[in-house]
Amino acid sequence: MSIYDFKATDIDGKEVDFSQYKGKVLLIVNTASKCGLTPQFEELEALYKKLGNEKFEILGFPCNQFASQDPGNSDEIKSFCMLNYGVTFKMFEKVDVNGENAHPIYKYLTSQKGGVLSKAIKWNFTKFLVDSNGNVVDRYAPTTVPSKIEEDITKLLKDV
Predict the structure, then answer these.
(1) Which one, of 129, 84, 105, lies nearest residue 16 by Cα?
(2) Of residues 35, 109, 130, 156, which has the active-site annotation?
(3) Where are the domains of the chain?
């Protein structure tokens, strides 16, 4: 099984086959609109504008599992992200990232790169870096700001 075997529904209700990301470096992030870390959307967007092209994508997955910090529906989340942070990277429907109902992509990601003491996602804005061959190469804590990941992404982009 690889990252390219998964599908997810985007924020507009369209099914996205992850095979379309073959050959690209991916940064996959569980997001929230009402979290102390929500301003990371700004850095994520800046990173996407700087590095995003045919070789790099950011995939955002809203999640309401942590203190109910993303209670809105897809339209509300999309509007919030666009109006407040000008988000242009790909956003998906709200998902669970932990537990029995976790989206399959998150079950896969956490099986590939566990966190400290546990495989579970501990909070919003946990980030997974996937290389252009579909390998999950790193996992970053929610407090790791996107600009601190730029060097790791740039290294992976040199191999694409």
Answers:
(1) 105
(2) 35
(3) 3-158
pLDDT digits (tens, 9 = 90+) for 15-68: 999 999 999 999 999 999 999 899 999 999 999 999 987 899 999 999 999 999
Tokens representing 141 are 């804590």
- For β-strands 127-130 and 90-91, DSSP reports them as unpaired
The Cα-based distances of 71 to 62, 77, 80, 136 in angstroms read 9, 9, 12, 29
Identify the CATH assignment for 3-158 out of 1.20.200.10, 3.40.30.10, 3.40.720.10, 3.40.50.1820: 3.40.30.10
81 is catalytic: no
pTM, entire model:
0.95
